[in-house]
Amino acid sequence: MEHITLLIGIVIVTALVFDFTNGFHDTANAMATTISTGALKPKTAVAMSAVLNLVGAFLSVEVAKTISGGIIDEGSGIRPEVIFAGLVGAIVWNLLTWLAGLPSSSSHALFGGLIGATVVSVGIGGVNADAVVMKVLIPAVAAPIVAGIAATAATRLTYRLARNRAEEDTAKGYRAGQIASAALVSLAHGTNDAQKTMGVITLALITGGALAPQADPPMWVIASAGIAIALGTYLGGWRIIRTMGKGITDIQPPQGFAAQTGAAVTILASSHLGFALSTTQVCSGAVMGSGLGRKGGVVRWSTAGRMVLAWGLTLPAAGLVAAGAAFLAGQGTWGVTTVAVLGVVICGAIWAASRRKPVDHSNVNDVEPVEPAGVVTTALQSVTPPPAGSTTAGAGTIEGIPAQSTTRSPATSAVR
After folding, report:
1. H or E segment at 402?
2. How far apart are CA 328 and CA 415, in angstroms?
3. Is the entire prediction scored with pTM above 0.85?
4. b/e for 182-191, b at 16 or more Cβ within 10 A?
5. Which of 40, 194, 198, 278 meets the CB 3.0–4.6 Å disulfide criterion with 217?
């Protein structure tokens, strides 16, 4: 193993903590729809996702290279404490959005933290603006739109192909399809998000002189990052799973299959190209697209709006926290110690707040009241009415699901 100083060791541990939070923050990306439709039991789903995230971490290093030698100029005088400050900003924002149950982007939290810390420490010249625009901002806008369009088209095609088949005849096939597509998303997540931590650790080793510039991540870095994200995934980010699986739209098995397949293809393609996109945004866009693709489907736009707002705030918010942390860390050993202590205190406070209203595998599918159907939903329902026979007065079913087993929101009732 390369010669590692105490400060670099602290950065590596902090990076793995971020990787762990990334894992439980993004479990919903792969498994929310599978859990919400009952295709897999919650604990089984997160266990499968954890294993496949670990496998995916070993499949590619293209995204890691984007982080270690693309976003930040490793020759601009970046020091390990700057990377440490960036990671603290990303971890704090990850935990805040987890507490709120918002599927925000762990990737953008990391990018924002690194950029904010770098600007404070060495100036704007330490950031490769072209790489930020081409490999972060443009994919951030394009990826959820592409995934949403793909999921909308796939959902409509799926329902069209099965329109003359009884639901009980297709249920088993859709369940198998959801499990397979969820596995593919988990594998894709490992190829994309685990690499971001590999890139950060590699960047820290380069700035500390333990690795040569432009070096690939060593095997021990790849393995440790894969294990950390797998452990976080197994823990399960149940709050965000609830939002993704139940809060955006009421997902049926065909929609879940279509959304997961569209998201997996988008993520795998971006990993191959070295685009460090947000898997959260891709999967959220796909879920919204699946809601629009089903006739009679309801997208809860206020929830979607809060998510988009969180997406827009992630880069600057994580950047501001990291900028303050970088200012303190730049003061010397006492500054680094202060940042570490404050980070632990803030994270502990967030965890304590989450215990007031816990969400876990036992209540993840409980649906909380949501807003009534708004103007956008009403307009969509007027042009895409429910399929004939899917909802009948007095029949007590919604697309074959018994009313007594379905928790209806006001928005869903509006479809009737």
Report:
1. strand 401-402
2. 54
3. no
4. bbbbbbbbbb
5. 198
